[in-house]
């Protein structure tokens, strides 16, 4: 894959000082963020967005230990986030996601929350309320595979980011297999379902709509 010029893209409606602060804050936790890039649109009104697309390993290396630790500390929040599952199911889901990993306190146990706080602050400080998209550069770093954040809810951002990080490798493998079988046209949209899984939707080279569900559990 061609080396990216940036992993963090924003529209011109995100103020420069907000973009620079977000880049600096995230860069302290995720070294591969690098410099940010502004995408300018001729259309009016131009969209307001922040896109962060990294390879699975670039998410996993700095954030996996913190994601495991966070989920073990957030059982009640998980129950609320997935509002259709019971407390017992939430406990089982967390155990399944983490598997045999031990929830030992990582060197930076607040890494996920730091990223969530940086993203929430960028949303709060941008008058046009940007849509934040986080994910992988598949099929490329223009369209990407992403889930959306539209509100500055630090707890929800933390949970979504942690769940994504712990399934990023699996998601990447599934999509690469899809690419080998049939091209992906445009973006791949990820949605966290109420039953505790992730659904991905896209169009293939025949313009047919396709989808696949990634189970957060180990089943």
Structural class: alpha/beta
Question: Gap between N and C termini, in Å?
Answer: 32 Å
Number of helices: 7
Task: Give start-end ranges of low-pLDDT stretches.
Answer: 1-5
Note the run of SSEs as H and E. EHEEHHHHEEHHEEE
Please compute the radius of gyration using only Cα atoms.
17 Å
| Strand order in the sheet with the most strands | 2-1-3-4-5-6-7-8
Summed up, the domain count is: 1
How would a crystallographer describe the biggest sheet?
Answer: 8 strands, mixed
Brief description of this entry?
By secondary structure, the protein is of the alpha/beta class. It has seven helices and eight strands; from the N terminus they run βαββααααββααβββ.
Draw up the topology in text.
Blueprint: E1 8-11, H1 16-29, E2 36-39, E3 49-53, H2 56-72, H3 75-81, H4 87-98, H5 111-124, E4 131-136, E5 145-149, H6 154-165, H7 168-181, E6 184-192, E7 197-204, E8 209-215
Helix pairs in contact: 1-5, 2-6, 2-7, 3-4, 5-6
What does this structure look like?
With 219 residues, the chain is of the alpha/beta class. It has one domain. It has helices spanning 16-29, 56-72, 75-81, 87-98, 111-124, 154-165, 168-181, and strands spanning 8-11, 36-39, 49-53, 131-136, 145-149, 184-192, 197-204, 209-215. The longest helix has 17 residues, at 56-72. It starts with 7 loop residues before the first strand and ends with a strand.
């Amino acid at each position: 894959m061609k080396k990216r010029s940036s992993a963090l893209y924003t529209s011109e409606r995100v103020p420069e000082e907000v973009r620079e602060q977000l880049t600096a804050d995230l860069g302290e936790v995720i070294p591969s963020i690098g410099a940010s890039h502004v995408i300018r649109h001729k259309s009016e009104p131009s969209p307001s967005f922040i896109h962060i697309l990294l390879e699975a390993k670039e998410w996993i290396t700095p954030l996996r230990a913190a994601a495991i630790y966070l989920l073990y500390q957030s059982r009640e929040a998980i129950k609320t986030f997935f509002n259709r599952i019971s407390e017992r199911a939430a406990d089982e889901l967390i155990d399944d996601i983490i598997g045999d990993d031990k929830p030992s306190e990582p060197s930076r146990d607040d890494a996920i929350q730091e990223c969530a706080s940086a993203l929430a602050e960028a949303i709060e400080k941008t008058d046009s309320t940007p849509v934040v998209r986080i994910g992988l550069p598949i099929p490329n770093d223009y369209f990407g595979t992403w889930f959306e954040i539209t509100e500055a809810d630090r707890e929800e951002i933390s949970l979504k980011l942690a769940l994504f990080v712990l399934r990023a490798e699996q998601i990447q493998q599934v999509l690469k297999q899809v690419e080998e079988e049939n091209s992906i046209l445009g973006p791949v949209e990820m949605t966290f379902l109420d039953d505790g899984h992730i659904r991905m939707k896209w169009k293939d080279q025949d313009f047919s709509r396709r989808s696949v569900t990634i189970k957060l559990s180990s089943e």
